[in-house]
């Protein structure tokens, strides 16, 4: 995507893998700031603090963290240690483990002296593959939006939750990729953007949409059901951090409530994600997916501009107030109309038809 007219991605290699560049997303939407990370611990910290965020992006970032670790020490013990530390950083998003394990599997059979160039090549290939997959997701998702427009002949209203745009991936995004491509095709549309407390990722979505001129409106998290009741939402499209083999979906907390409202009002509810988000080892998402609990300070404070225009953290409640901060919830497959992947759109129960190799691999293990 473009920022101020300049083609930009969320992550890139610096000096042929000697470092990586990122966008510090904790500064958005008020400041666009790039940062260079020069060792794997800095990348791990960037993932933990959500300087980089979004399931597909943290997977790619973790792959590059492995490259930096192997650059410094390509011995078996360190590789396994770094792998474990990275996976523990954000446990719900399966893309992180998928990316790290894919890279480790490629380098471990090799002598230590041969591992770095292979790790670099694999990270580059995964980065490019992410872009292609996201573009394909958008192409398939745009067809859904086009069909909705053909029926109503008025702008299509899409509701999103969290940020599943290019900032959550290397480029294009997942849920927003469909919006971008539909917009490119000239389909009139409007996006309802959930603010998505407590990290306010909806503000990132609004920042993205404003950058390309797509009509949008930010709403409070609890306004979605009201809009659906009044027939102001034609479809809900969200991303995902993990999808089970039967189509249960873990996504940013609050997604389940949107899915319930959509089901009640007969509004189609779609999930857009690459195949790397599917965890074939899990059937029951409610009991099988580990839900990350984050710091209570994300609820106690909110970040914004003070009266002088400086970025500041504002306290919302007493420091002793008890808070619980689950970062994700699980939407059962029965509430999902369809899953939009790089291979097409299917009902949750037909995931194995789109990706038979994933199901076969799990059956053998």
Automatic annotation (TrEMBL):
Family annotation (Gene3D superfamilies): translation initiation factor eif-2b, domain 1, Translation initiation factor eif-2b, domain 2
Keyword Amino-acid biosynthesis: yes
Stretches assigned to coiled coil: none
Residues annotated to bind substrate: 53-55, 90, 201, 251-252
Catalytic residues identified in the record: 241 (proton donor)
Site, as annotated: Transition state stabilizer: 162
Superkingdom, taxonomy of origin: Bacteria
EC number in record: 5.3.1.23
Keywords: Amino-acid biosynthesis, Isomerase, Methionine biosynthesis
InterPro entries: IF-2B-related (IPR000649), IF-M1Pi (IPR005251), IF_2B-like_C (IPR042529), Initiation_fac_2B_a/b/d (IPR011559), M1Pi_N (IPR027363), NagB/RpiA_transferase-like (IPR037171)
Pathway as given in its UniProt record: Amino-acid biosynthesis; L-methionine biosynthesis via salvage pathway; L-methionine from S-methyl-5-thio-alpha-D-ribose 1-phosphate: step 1/6
Catalytic activity of the protein: 5-(methylsulfanyl)-alpha-D-ribose 1-phosphate = 5-(methylsulfanyl)-D-ribulose 1-phosphate
Single annotated GO MF: S-methyl-5-thioribose-1-phosphate isomerase activity
HAMAP family (alphabetical): Salvage_MtnA
Family membership: Belongs to the EIF-2B alpha/beta/delta subunits family. MtnA subfamily.
Protein purpose: Catalyzes the interconversion of methylthioribose-1-phosphate (MTR-1-P) into methylthioribulose-1-phosphate (MTRu-1-P).
PANTHER family linked: METHYLTHIORIBOSE-1-PHOSPHATE ISOMERASE (PTHR43475)
Protein name in UniProt: Methylthioribose-1-phosphate isomerase
């Amino acid at each position: 995507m473009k920022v101020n007219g300049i083609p930009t991605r969320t992550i890139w290699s610096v000096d042929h893998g000697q470092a990586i560049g990122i966008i510090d997303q904790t500064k958005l939407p008020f400041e666009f700031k790039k940062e260079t990370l020069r060792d794997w611990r800095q990348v791990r910290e960037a993932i933990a603090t959500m300087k980089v965020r979004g399931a597909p992006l943290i997977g790619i970032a973790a792959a590059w963290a492995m490259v930096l670790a192997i650059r410094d020490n390509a011995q078996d013990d360190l590789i396994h240690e770094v792998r474990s530390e990275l996976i523990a950083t954000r446990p719900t998003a399966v893309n992180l483990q998928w990316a790290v394990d894919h890279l480790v599997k490629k380098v471990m059979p090799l002598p230590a002296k041969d591992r770095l160039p292979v790790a670099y090549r694999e990270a580059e290939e995964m980065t490019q593959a992410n872009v292609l997959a996201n573009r394909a997701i958008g192409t398939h998702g745009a067809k859904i939006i086009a069909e909705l427009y053909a029926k109503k002949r008025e702008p299509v209203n899409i509701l999103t939750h969290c940020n599943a745009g290019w900032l959550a991936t290397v480029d294009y995004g997942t849920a927003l990729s469909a919006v971008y491509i539909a917009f490119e095709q000239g389909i009139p549309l409007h996006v309802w953007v959930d603010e998505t407390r407590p990290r306010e990722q909806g503000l990132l979505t609004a920042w993205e949409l404003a950058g390309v001129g797509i009509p949008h409106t930010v709403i409070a998290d609890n306004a979605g059901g009201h809009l659906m009741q009044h027939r102001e939402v034609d479809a809900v499209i969200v991303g995902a951090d993990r999808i089970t083999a039967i189509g249960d979906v873990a996504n940013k907390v609050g997604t389940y409530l949107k899915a319930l409202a959509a089901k009640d009002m007969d509004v189609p509810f779609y999930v857009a994600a690459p195949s790397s988000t599917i965890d074939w080892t899990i059937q029951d998402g409610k009991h099988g997916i580990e839900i990350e609990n984050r710091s209570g300070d994300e609820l106690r404070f909110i970040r914004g501009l003070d009266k002088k225009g400086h970025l500041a953290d504002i306290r919302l409640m007493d420091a002793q107030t008890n808070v619980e901060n689950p970062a994700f919830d699980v939407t059962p497959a029965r509430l999902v109309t369809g899953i939009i992947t790089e291979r097409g759109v299917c009902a949750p129960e037909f995931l194995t038809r789109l990706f038979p190799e994933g199901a076969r691999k799990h059956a053998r293990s």
